[in-house]
């Protein structure tokens, strides 16, 4: 069993975590878990039920009867796949208020640790290297300038037909979310001391993937 190992990938919104983590997991034949999707799934359910994401009591009540799982690249909410719904911008705008609640985090962290047990896993999020998988064999922290990250998300939403999106508003949304995520009391977004920092601003997806795979396969990491 001690042959299993994990790779933790953290970083701010739209720094490329999920794209890169997915690709790395394919190349190294590991499982991939998107922890952000789990917080997004609960947020989507809260909004579907017309609840206020800041109403901790009601959110926790709803959580009691909520089942969240991430399997084979799909996010399941109460047994139903909701991959597309959770990416909508109104979900992004509320998710940090849900993720700030310590009891919500406690439950998600426990689920995530159970998912990773005895498996080769690539997991991405905000607190993977610092809280969820502190023993991960490899830890990476991805960053990019706020302008680049907003632009990436803008292109992505546009491609998915979300034409109402405004680049400046999106940049403000991301800035706000990063601020809440970095300053919250429970498990804030933070680079783990033993994580390798990769600034992806001017790097292609392939360059970042190659750098991580090389590092895991034992090559040097100086180029990062
Ligand atoms: O893809 P993007 O970077 O926009 O977000 P995400 O990874 O899907 O995460 C959405 C939100 O969930 C974050 O802004 C955090 O508030 C929360 N989150 C968290 O608190 N801890 C994690 N491990 C993953 C996500
Ligand atoms: O998971 P996270 O929010 O950190 O980012 P993502 O959803 O993986 O990436 C956001 C967008 O940036 C995607 O459309 C990626 O294709 C793109 N991207 C990029 O253009 N260059 C990179 N080096 C990494 C991601």
From TrEMBL:
<keyword id="KW-0547">Nucleotide-binding</keyword>
<dbReference type="GO" id="GO:0036431">
    <property type="term" value="F:dCMP kinase activity"/>
</dbReference>
<comment type="similarity">
    <text>Belongs to the cytidylate kinase family. Type 1 subfamily.</text>
</comment>
<dbReference type="GO" id="GO:0006220">
    <property type="term" value="P:pyrimidine nucleotide metabolic process"/>
</dbReference>
<keyword id="KW-0963">Cytoplasm</keyword>
<dbReference type="Pfam" id="PF02224">
    <property type="entry name" value="Cytidylate_kin"/>
</dbReference>
<protein>
    <recommendedName>
        <fullName>Cytidylate kinase</fullName>
        <ecNumber>2.7.4.25</ecNumber>
    </recommendedName>
</protein>
<dbReference type="GO" id="GO:0015949">
    <property type="term" value="P:nucleobase-containing small molecule interconversion"/>
</dbReference>
<keyword id="KW-0067">ATP-binding</keyword>
<dbReference type="GO" id="GO:0036430">
    <property type="term" value="F:CMP kinase activity"/>
</dbReference>
<dbReference type="GO" id="GO:0005524">
    <property type="term" value="F:ATP binding"/>
</dbReference>
<feature type="binding site">
    <location>
        <begin position="11"/>
        <end position="19"/>
    </location>
    <ligand>
        <name>ATP</name>
    </ligand>
</feature>
<keyword id="KW-0418">Kinase</keyword>
<dbReference type="InterPro" id="IPR027417">
    <property type="entry name" value="P-loop_NTPase"/>
</dbReference>
<keyword id="KW-0808">Transferase</keyword>
<dbReference type="InterPro" id="IPR003136">
    <property type="entry name" value="Cytidylate_kin"/>
</dbReference>
<feature type="domain" description="Cytidylate kinase">
    <location>
        <begin position="7"/>
        <end position="215"/>
    </location>
</feature>
<dbReference type="GO" id="GO:0005829">
    <property type="term" value="C:cytosol"/>
</dbReference>
<dbReference type="InterPro" id="IPR011994">
    <property type="entry name" value="Cytidylate_kinase_dom"/>
</dbReference>
